[in-house]
């Protein structure tokens, strides 16, 4: 009888060690994400911002003008340095001042979008690829949502199916067989 | 002339014992006429057993024959798996209607993965477009599957992809007169294309319009053939057989089961897949935490395809 709790404890220790590598204390599976989708040459931010004085003013941006133009993410309430960290530009910052790396930017998004963050951790929000019973790749929020203009962008739909009256009986040579319009989309 | 007279008189034709034996021998001999090595496979295919009645050796022999046939037909080498269902696995699928934008990536990723005929065209997934606010769930006829705007989603519309719902109580299986379609232990409804006689009773029985018929010889460009196949799944079909979604049985079964092709292609992550018997799976989280419904639930088909709203 006394053996049983010990056995359970031993089991927990063993399996905890096993699963522990997959799910950390914050409940976020570490399977994990590809690197953040930076525009080419833009990171690290410090390569330009090093030594530049931090300017908190809301203004027209000259260098990051494309972000200024498309910025549409609670624009009235926020400006650059509310999310980007002023002193160490290669990091993001939460409202409480905690520094967040770009690789873990979901902690930043999760501050406001808590229910989505919860679903994402469970594997319900967002795209997954890989194995349903093993290794799978998550995506960062910013892989699908532009952080400065987060609404998912419309897509061109692939062609509709043929109507029954458009389907013909014909003999085709091998090179005449229609190709799949999905092409190389993965 | 003599025979004709006899027929006219409706007299039974008398056959001598010798004549009967000679005739029988001739008849049997004519059955065996194609004896060349190429024709032998025709006979092997003709006498092939039902998939569930074959033992491992018989399956191996059948696979070997088929791989040869396919390589002759397509000029490429295929592998045909016969991976069995894993114990403790019951596949379930989730589709988030609040995310789907109707881009049809899933339709053509499925075509690519599952070797559907490009001509005549066969799609296993139909994406239906509905006007917001219209009566819809009981009136699928009111939907449009031929929508083709420049960009989706269109304002004022929403989208619902429909494919095989992998019912726990599948009406198609009961309709099949040759038992060529059945439900596997992991819940996937499969078809043995070699036992399908093409009567299409299953198509009439399916309330979801999920089954497709090969009206013509299925044509696929050689370069686009997916050579990783499963006997019960995406191996190339022939004219006159029924086919449908198998939850990508060739991908999802086995130790390192991958997500189905439609799940992996979906750009908005609306498609979810997992083991209904695993309480920690994504699909169980959806069923327990989200607003979920199953299509035409009132028919008692018990689909394992759950539509849900994440927002």
Number of domains of chain A: 1
Instruction: Write down the CATH class of the largest domain in chain B.
Output: Alpha Beta
The SSE order of chain A reads: HHHEEHHEEH
Shape of chain A: elongated
Secondary structure tally, helices of chain B:
10
How many DSSP E strands of chain B? 12
CATH architecture of the largest domain in chain B: 2-Layer Sandwich
Helix content of chain B: 25-40%
Supply the key terms.
heterodimer, A: 186 residues, mainly alpha, two-stranded antiparallel sheet, 6 helices, 4% strand, disordered N terminus, B: 311 residues, alpha+beta, Alpha-Beta Plaits, 4-stranded mixed sheet, two-stranded parallel sheet, 10 helices, elongated
Describe the structure.
The complex is a heterodimer of chains A (186) and B (311). Helices cover 24% and strands 4% of the residues of chain A. With 186 residues, chain A is mostly helical. In chain A, β1 and β2 form a beta hairpin. In chain B, strands 10-2-12-11 form a 4-stranded mixed β-sheet. Chain B has a two-stranded parallel ribbon with strand order 1-8. In chain B, a hairpin with a 5-residue loop joins β5 (181-183) and β6. The model of chain B has no long low-confidence stretch (mean pLDDT 91).
Brief synopsis:
Helix content of chain A is 24%, strand content 4%. Chain A is mainly alpha-helical and 186 residues long. In chain A, β1 and β2 form a beta hairpin.
Element layout with pairings:
The complex is a heterodimer of chains A (186) and B (311).
Chain A: H1 3-20, H2 46-49, H3 65-70, E1 92-93, E2 99-100, H4 106-109, H5 114-122, E3 129-130, E4 136-137, H6 141-144
Antiparallel strand pairs in A: 1-2, 3-4
Chain B: H1 2-8, H2 17-31, H3 37-46, H4 56-74, E1 79-81, E2 91-96, H5 105-114, E3 126-131, E4 157-162, H6 171-175, E5 181-183, E6 189-191, H7 201-205, E7 212-213, E8 228-230, E9 242-243, H8 249-252, H9 261-265, E10 271-275, H10 282-289, E11 291-293, E12 305-309
Parallel strand pairs in B: 1-8, 2-12
Antiparallel strand pairs in B: 2-10, 3-4, 5-6, 7-9, 11-12
């Amino acid at each position: 009888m006394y053996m049983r709790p010990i056995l359970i404890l031993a089991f927990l220790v063993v399996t905890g060690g096993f699963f522990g590598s997959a799910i950390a204390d914050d409940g976020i599976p570490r399977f994990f994400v590809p690197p953040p989708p930076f525009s080419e040459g833009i990171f690290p931010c410090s390569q330009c911002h090093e030594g530049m004085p931090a300017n908190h003013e809301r203004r027209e941006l000259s260098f990051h003008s494309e972000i200024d133009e498309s910025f549409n993410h609670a624009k009235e309430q926020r400006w650059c340095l509310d999310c980007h960290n002023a002193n160490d530009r290669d990091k993001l910052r939460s409202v409480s001042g905690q520094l967040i790396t770009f690789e873990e930017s979901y902690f930043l998004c999760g501050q406001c979008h808590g229910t989505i963050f919860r679903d994402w951790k469970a594997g319900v929000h967002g795209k997954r690829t890989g194995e349903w019973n093993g290794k799978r790749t998550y995506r960062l929020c910013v892989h699908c949502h532009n952080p400065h203009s987060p609404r998912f962008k419309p897509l061109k739909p692939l062609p509709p199916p043929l109507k029954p009256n458009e389907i013909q009986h014909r003999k085709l040579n091998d090179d005449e067989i229609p190709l799949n319009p999905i092409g190389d989309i993965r | 002339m003599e025979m004709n007279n006899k027929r006219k008189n409706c007299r039974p034709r008398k056959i001598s014992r010798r004549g009967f034996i000679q005739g029988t021998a001739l008849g049997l001999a004519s059955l065996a006429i194609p004896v060349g090595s190429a024709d032998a496979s025709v006979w092997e295919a003709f006498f092939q057993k039902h998939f569930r009645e074959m033992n491992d050796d018989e399956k191996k022999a059948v696979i070997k024959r088929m791989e040869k046939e396919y390589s002759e037909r397509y000029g490429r080498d295929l592998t045909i798996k016969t991976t069995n269902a894993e114990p403790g696995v019951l596949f379930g699928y989730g589709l988030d209607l609040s995310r789907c934008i109707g881009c049809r990536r899933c339709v053509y990723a499925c075509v690519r993965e599952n070797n559907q005929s490009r001509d005549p065209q066969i799609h296993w997934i139909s994406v239906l477009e509905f006007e917001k606010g219209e009566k819809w769930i009981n009136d699928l006829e009111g939907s449009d599957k031929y929508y083709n705007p420049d960009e989706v989603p269109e304002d004022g519309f929403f989208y619902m992809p429909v494919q095989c719902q992998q019912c726990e109580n599948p009406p198609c299986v009961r309709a099949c007169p040759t038992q060529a379609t059945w439900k596997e232990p992991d819940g996937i409804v499969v078809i043995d294309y070699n036992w399908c006689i093409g009567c299409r009773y299953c198509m009439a029985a399916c309330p979801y319009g999920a089954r497709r018929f090969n009206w013509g010889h299925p044509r696929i460009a050689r370069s686009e053939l997916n050579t990783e196949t499963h006997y019960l799944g995406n191996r190339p079909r022939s004219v006159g057989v029924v086919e449908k979604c198998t939850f990508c049985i060739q991908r999802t079964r086995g130790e390192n089961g991958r997500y189905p092709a439609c799940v992996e292609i979906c750009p908005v992550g609306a498609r979810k897949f997992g083991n209904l018997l695993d309480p920690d799976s994504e699909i169980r989280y959806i069923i327990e935490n989200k607003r979920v419904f199953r299509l035409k639930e009132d028919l008692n088909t018990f689909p394992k395809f759950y539509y849900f709203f994440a927002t």
